[in-house]
Amino acid sequence: MGRKVALIVGSLRKESFNRKLALALQDMAPESLTLTLVEIGALPLYNEDLDNDTPPQAWTVFRQEVNACEGVLFVTPEYNRSVPGVLKNALDVGSRPYGKSVWAKKPAAIASSTPGGLGAFGANHHLRQSMVFLDVPLLQQPEIYLSQINKAFDEQGKLKDDGIRKLLSGFMSAFAAWVDKHASD
Q1: What is d(CA 34, CA 27) in angstroms, rounded to the nearest whole number?
Q2: Whole-structure pTM value
Q3: Which burial class, exposed, middle or buried, applies to 96 when counting CB atoms under 10 A from its CB (0-12, 13-18, 19+)?
Q4: Which of 71, 70, 90, 87 minimizes the C-alpha distance to 79?
Q5: Helix 85-95 × helix 57-67 angle, to 10°
Q6: Cα separation of 178 and 131, whole Å?
Q7: Which residues of the chain have pLDDT under 50?
Q8: Would you give the DSSP letter of residue 7?
Q9: DSSP letter at 72?
């Protein structure tokens, strides 16, 4: 079993292309990584008034799950040229209380995709901006912005495009090396 990595999907839709992409990445992860889906859909909106001795149980579970991982892989669509609100909320929940962020120093990477033509570039870069503040060492290359993702999967939700598969395989190899370089032992 490899280093445990949180796999966080920024889409809640059942048949989400980004969830399919995340599952494809999970399947092609090198043996040095074990990608574990960490769900974010049930997280109550962050409200500092609730972050006391008894925060919402969903926050506690989420923070424990991410803390147990040595890295994070974000897979996200783009909503209005930015990250989906559910993903931003997960970042906020994980970054609090101040001084106890689950993100700090945790190596990460981002893959973004869209049925449209820009590969969710805006969401990818807005997420990168947050990673700087959260003190997350983020894989810079290769970058993954996948356009027309709706054409990449077969009827069973499996990746059918060999060019994308090759690109993602290289991405996962680079990410595994990144995690090995930056994860604390």
Answers
A1: 10
A2: 0.96
A3: middle
A4: 87
A5: 80
A6: 15
A7: none
A8: E
A9: E
